[in-house]
Amino acid sequence: MLDASSFHSDDARRDKDITGRKFLDAGQHPTIAFRSTGCRRTDAGWLLDGVLRVRGHDSDVTLTLERAGGGHFVASAVVYRVAAGVATGRAVIARPVRIELDLYAA
């Protein structure tokens, strides 16, 4: 889980907009969560399927896993913000948004 209010960039006004009601609405939906529904190996590598919850809205997501060394992995995907529950911001942010997560296994 991620704290929806933890978004930080180099612009405090942008941070307030992103965590505000128009985008993440961190006041009403304080967490962003991912729940895995399965992991599978393909010819291209490992994929992690799951459900992403943003603004109380669930959407199916498939993350591509890449080993970065030791127990460190990088998971990435393109998430379509409207399907993920963020319908506003047409002039500010594209519909497809690339996300990248650093994962550490103990």
UniProtKB/TrEMBL annotation:
Ranges where the Lipid/polyisoprenoid-binding YceI-like domain occurs: 2-103
Q: Which Gene3D superfamilies match?
A: Lipid/polyisoprenoid-binding, YceI-like (2.40.128.110)
Task: List the source organism.
Answer: Paractinoplanes aksuensis
Q: Which domain of life is it from?
A: Bacteria
Q: InterPro entries recorded for this chain?
A: Lipid/polyisoprenoid-bd_YceI, TTHA0802/YceI-like_sf
Name used for this protein in its record = YceI family protein
Tell me the protein family, please: Belongs to the UPF0312 family.
> Which Pfam families does its entry note?
YceI (PF04264)
Traced from the root, the source organism's taxonomic lineage reads:
Bacteria, Bacillati, Actinomycetota, Actinomycetes, Micromonosporales
